[in-house]
Sequence to fold (98 residues):
Amino acid sequence: MLRPELIASFEFDVDNLKHLTGKHGIESEDVLEVFSNGPVFIEDDVGQTGDWYMVAPVAGGWRTIVLTESRSRDRTVARPITGWPSNRWEIERYGAES
Fold:
């Protein structure tokens, strides 16, 4: 399982970029902005596709990115698989844990 404290980079490829940009309007730069803004990591529920929610304020609001382990299984690389504008619960968790 992915460990947030080990993340050093992100895995972007045709598959996840197509899903992120086409379905959710999220660019690779958005993922990097969330990561560089001191995110809070919220563990995803057991049985879900993702491992962690990465939540942080960004220009124009808040963003949540769902991460999972990279296809290469490199524990320092996270694979973003989806994302959205953060909801109230996610923002409150950011405040409680930051």
